[in-house]
Prior knowledge:
Helices cover 41% and strands 13% of the residues. The two termini are 29 Å apart. The protein has two domains: 8-35 and 44-51, no CATH class; 59-94. It has three helices and three strands; from the N terminus they run βββααα. It has a three-stranded antiparallel beta sheet, covered by helices on one side. By secondary structure, it is α+β, with helices and mostly antiparallel strands.
Amino acid sequence: MKHTPGPWMLNEPFATPKAKWLIWAGHPIASVSAARKRNAHCTDMSSEEGKANAHLIAAAPEMYEALKALAHCTTHKTLEAAYAALAKAEGRHA
């Protein structure tokens, strides 16, 4: 199974009635919204948690490649890629 090649970017601010953050790779990949409790199957999610989830999704391709490289060998360049992927996943700029 192949995923859409990265990089995936978090497009913000982006707000529609259904989506607050859009993950984009030349076309939409995913959208994330802060859930409002509507029934027993839907739990509350804060805006902060929704944004953190969107950053994590957007960092997925870089995290995948960095972890794959780490599995084969650990070098200074590989560690830099891992730190950059983690920074993106956490919403920080590397």
